[in-house]
Sequence to fold (215 residues):
Amino acid sequence: MVMEVIRLNDANQGQLVARAAEVLRADGVILYPTDTLYGLGADAFSDAAFRKVCEIKDRDERRPIHAVFENLAMAEAYAEISPLGRRLAEAFLPGPLTLVFKKKPSVTAGIGHNLSSIGVRIPKNKFCLALAHEFGKPYTTTSANMSGAEPPATFEGIIKQLGANTELIDLAIEGGALPAYLRSTVVDVRNDKPHILREGAISAAEIGKALETEL
Fold:
């Protein structure tokens, strides 16, 4: 299969959102820009789509993959939103922050398979949020790189690193150079105290300041 490549701009965003949603509904995979890195997107709760993303990255299916949500209201259908998580969402979202909540017991497929948690990402990116709205469900957000390798800094670098695995990508959305080449900060908010799993674009000090506590 030949990967479809389209460059994103203001004029074609609506058309491209519709095309990307069509791919997601068909259990396809997209390569897309976020407010941090390029990501691989697929229906987050489709077993078949989830396996495709893992195959592209050569990633162990037991490792967690997070998802893009339009807003916290969408996340409430899949995750148990804690008061701590809500406070951080109000302070930083949309933005480069992933919040790890307890998943609801009914969530068992796709990224919810064999996990007790779910990572919620609401990027500060118009395309990402518009796609979540159009698709009507969460889609995966995992960096576009081979597992264990550094994510390339450019679209061209991603294509080169993924090599033949790009044949498993249905639609690649080229968004040019991204404004902040940093991973999102990942915070476990399942309990009363935050646990920073990965410090990224938002520092631990900023998280502590928002919560009025030292981390």
